[in-house]
Design goal:
The chain contains 1 helix and 8 strands. By secondary structure, the protein is α+β, with helices and mostly antiparallel strands. The strands form 2 sheets. Strands 2-6-7-8-4-3 form a 6-stranded antiparallel sheet. Strands 1-5 form a two-stranded parallel sheet.
Length: about 140
């Protein structure tokens, strides 16, 4: 099985519990603005995209999601975020093919409201997050 297909399978398995558990995504729809191009990872590792310290609502920022331990937590805009749900279908907003990578997903993070955000990447469903005061568990 190719690395990309294996990565998608791992993502879907990791997110399955949230989607089936009634998390159900956000009450907000992903922003309906212009289409975004699929992002590629910085092969040299010199640039890690996490968006600005103070993001604006409804603006898509380049974001590199660490996926080694699944996509349950994110750091964005100076806050910690915990997954709240997964969209029912693949994102139509990010055009192109999913970039190859084992532990990082290159996509976009958009602040939907003060306490809700969505991560979108090519060939992935939108992943919704809620701001939290919880501390993410350690990932080995």
């Amino acid at each position: 099985m190719g690395r990309v297909r294996a990565g998608v399978l791992v993502l879907m398995l990791a997110l399955g519990g949230v989607a089936c558990g009634g998390g159900g995504g956000s009450s907000e729809e992903p922003p309906a603005e212009k289409r975004l191009k699929a992002r590629k990872l910085d092969k040299d590792g010199e640039r890690w995209e996490q968006g600005p310290k103070h993001p604006k609502v409804q603006v898509a920022y380049p974001y590199d999601m660490y996926t080694h331990c699944g996509i349950e937590w994110a750091d964005f805009g100076g806050k910690t975020w915990k997954i709240s749900g997964v969209g029912p279908s693949i994102s139509k907003r990010v055009e192109g093919d999913i970039p190859e990578g084992d532990t990082v997903g290159a996509g976009y993070m958009t602040l939907l409201s003060k306490d809700e955000a969505v991560f979108e990447a090519a060939d992935f469903p939108p992943v919704y997050f809620k701001a939290t005061k919880e501390t993410p568990p350690r990932c080995d």
